[in-house]
Amino acid sequence: MSEKEFRIIYKGATGEIEEKKSRFIAHIAPVTSEEEAVQFINGKKRILGRQT
For the chain, what is the domain count? Predict the structure, then answer.
């Protein structure tokens, strides 16, 4: 019997690590709907697109 475990995000955060000359960036934020999640993702795409 396996139960799914969920973690609750209470506030936004950003994390970054470098591995073998590659940079990995993570952004998280609490959302209450799929629409909010899509807006968050699209906002990050616009911001990160300008930095490349």
Answer: 1
52 residues of the chain, pLDDT tens digit each: 468 888 888 999 999 999 999 999 899 999 999 999 999 999 888 776 765 4
Distance CA 14, CA 26 (A): 6
> 47 in a domain, yes or no?
yes
Q: What CA–CA distance (Å, rounded) separates 40 from 34?
A: 10
Query: For residue 31, is it within any domain?
Result: yes
pTM (2 d.p.): 0.62
Domain membership of residue 5 (yes or no) is: no
- DSSP class of residue 33 equals S
